[in-house]
Each structure stands twice: as C-alpha cells, then as structure tokens.
Amino acid sequence: MSELEAGGGGPPAASLRLQSLLDGMRVAKVVQVLAELQVADALADGPRPVAEIAAEVGADPDALYRVLRCAASFGVFTERDDRRFGLTPMAELLRTGTADSHRDLFRMAAGDLWWRPYGDLLETVRTGRPAAERVFGMPFYDHLRADPAAADLFDRAMTQVSKGQAKAILSRRSFDRFRRIADIGGGHGYFLAQVLNSSPGSAGVLLDLPDVVAGAPPVLEKHGVADRVRVLSGSFFDELPKGCDAYLLKAVLINWPDDRAEQILRRVRQAIGDDPHARLLVVEPVVPPGDVRDYSKATDIDMLAIIGGRQRTVAEWRRLLRAGGFDLVSQPVPGRREVLECRPVRSRTASPVEFKESA
C-alpha cells in the first residue's frame, strides 16, 4: 500500500494496520525459501549479482530476484545497484553452521512441519484438537518418530532456540548451589552444558528418549562437560532418576495439556522423595495479562495447532504446579522466559512418593 493510498482518499489507518498483518505470512515463507536455498551462504564473501546467486543455489534468476527484493524490503538482505544483493545482520543469521544461526528454525517454522498444520487452524479452533493430528494422521511427536528427517530438523531448530535462551537465562540466574542437576527432556544437552559451564562445581544428568540422547555426546564433548554428565534414555512419563537436588524441565510442560503436564510433575515429585531441599526448576515463558503484545501469545498458537500443549499465566502455573506436588516460590515476571523455582509439597494424606499413577 503506497503512502498516497494511505492518505486522504485511502483506507483508514486501522485497515492498513490490519492488512499489514498479512505481510507476516508472506515474509516468513520468503525467508524460509531463502534459508532452504542457502542464499546467505552464497553471499558470505560479499554482495553478488542475482544471476550468480541463482546459478549457485539452483534457482530461476527472475523468481529469485523477486523473492530477494521482498526480503530486502523488510531488512533481510540488502539490494544494491544492478540486481546485486548482500547480507544484513538478519541475513547473517541465516548462514549455515554459525554460532547464532537461525536457519533451521526458519526451515522448520515456515516449512511444512509448521506450515501445514497452520493451514488447518480453523478446524482446530472449531474442535479444540491439534491440526497436526489431522494433517499428519497422528500426534506431532509420533510424526517425528515416524519421520527421522523431520525429527532431525526439529531437534536442530530447538537447539538454535536454546542458544539465545541460555544466554539470557544465565545472565540473570545462577545454578551454583545445586550439586547434581537433572535436565529432564533435555534434548541433546545444549542447555545443560551451558548451565554446567556456569557452575563448575555441579554435575548433571541428561534424560530424553533414546533416539534424542543419541545425539547428545558430541554436544557435551564440544562444550567440555561430557565427563560431568550421565546420559540416560527414558521418558519423563516413567520413573525418573533419584538423588538430584535440582530437576530442570525446560520447554517440556509447554508441550502438554494440563493433565499430561501434571503426570510429568508427579514423576519429578516422586523422584525427589523425602528431600525437602531439592528443587524443581521450570524454564518456560510466562504469559502477561491483558492486551500486552508478547511472543508467548503467538507461540501459544503453535502449541494449540501443532503440538497440543499451551503457554501459561502465573495463575495457571501456580495451579498446575500445586496439582503436581509443588509450590512456586519464585516471583516470575510475565512477558519473559523465566526459571520458575518450585519446592516439593508434602502430602497430608500420603508419603511423598505415593502419587496416583496415570492410566
């Protein structure tokens, strides 16, 4: 929409703002395509003509020019004279294998793994059931187990997300007081490795499904903590390792509805047993109230349409944690990813390990 159209005779401002929301759909797909083609890698040594880029990445020169032009108008890449394009700070993040690469995140979130379920969002809102179940014919995590390539992309995208989160969390939170830290559902162990590097006196336990933790050893070796981590294969719905004084659940409970999340919490509570000093540390976003614009409110739709979980407010976290056998003792700040510190609550009617089991 041009400035002239936005002026006196054009649509009102509210209409323009509403129409501009469609740009998010368009640009996300454009960036995903450019990430898939590895265009940023082709420009690592400097700006190049679009014809050269197209020849290297296997694209039609005119089609690639139009897609790059769109991306450049939003600050992803920059257009020079004579159809030459170069990198911008955002485009640098689309390079392969760099420390802060976002390439796999865009390949996942704007590719078929996310895109196809979002195309069926209307039916999700009508039924309350994740679109992924209809699109893939099975729940999302079952689909990952059935499609190794999709699972690999998902794991790499989640590791890229963890990098930025780890830096932010560790800048304001110390784990030094915990002797033995269990990261339950910890993927390849990137976050646990950063925690242990920030707490040289601590050791770790990493638990996830067998096909996931199979990718952990090189990550732990790379970050110099392999000799301090015991790697276990298993599910957080089953019995968990005992004897740790901190149990991390990072981006785990977000993936499950309340009844299933409560089962995970009860497994952690069972593992803690009689130790009143052990702590559960839940690393999750906290949804702010009202009309505040926040990333968690957008990613909650990922949970609704794709995975089947949910983002939670402070009040919702308190209710869920209490149902799982914990009290929230920290004061989370809505609107950012928090470390929710929780202490075990001793039941008045049963010993700490006598929790009801799920069917």
TrEMBL record:
Domain of life of the organism encoding this protein: Bacteria
Domain O-methyltransferase dimerisation: 21-94
Keyword Transferase: yes
Any GO MF annotation of the entry: methyltransferase activity
Keywords linked to the UniProt accession: Methyltransferase, S-adenosyl-L-methionine, Transferase
CDD domains: AdoMet_MTases
GO biological process: methylation
Domain O-methyltransferase C-terminal residues, every copy: 118-326
InterPro entries in the record: COMT-like (IPR016461), COMT_C (IPR001077), COMT_dimerisation (IPR012967), SAM-dependent_MTases_sf (IPR029063), WH-like_DNA-bd_sf (IPR036388), WH_DNA-bd_sf (IPR036390)
Pfam family of the protein (one): Dimerisation
Full protein name: Methyltransferase
Organism: Actinomadura vinacea
